[in-house]
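Batch manifest, entry 17 of 40.
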Amino acid sequence: MPYLDRKGDVFILYLGNEGETDNENRFNPDWIDATNAALDEVEAHEGPAALVTTATGKFYTNGLDTNWIFSNADALPGFLDRVNAIYGRLLTFPMATVAAVQGHSFGAGAMLATAHDFRVMRADRGFYCLPEVTLNMPFTIGMSALVNGRMPKQTAVEAMTTGRRYGGSDALAAGIVDEIADGEGVLEAAVARASALTATRGNNLAGIKRGIHHEALAALATVTDKSNFSFG
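Output type: structure tokens
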């Protein structure tokens, strides 16, 4: 389950199990609960702060837990609403957020990185990919709005309609990420970027973010049902 570390005023939220390097860090209800609990802890901190999310091993996060979904298909719409709520929470988080994408980020995991203020991606290994079109899975209204609001339009079109896998350099050129770094330098670069922004922490920052992302936030708050999502 996700866990916290800290470097100075920067909180580091690891998306997988502590001590494991082979976890895909997929979204399921327990993972969402643990992530929200960690975010609650960070948000309760008083004083300058910023947030970095990352993981260890091959994956930043490989997206939705398909084993859980196939065993709980009737619960999928409500589950997707919980996923969308995490994106909305990050979009308006009252401190700077930086995704340190040290490995593969696919599907819902790629969108998690996209919901941060800034993204640093590993240059020499790992892909950013939205494979929904190849899996015959639609995006929720909120997911579509998130991607369209955070990427150049033609990049969003390509990413969403082709399932292209972007390496670090390609992701930087396409405007998906803000910076690339080699190997262990990803987390270091993300923490450095976050450290420079700890003084912005507070309700004013959250309000500014709500203004910037108001269209995506409204879409992410749309309840998922058969009229706007199908699966199978």
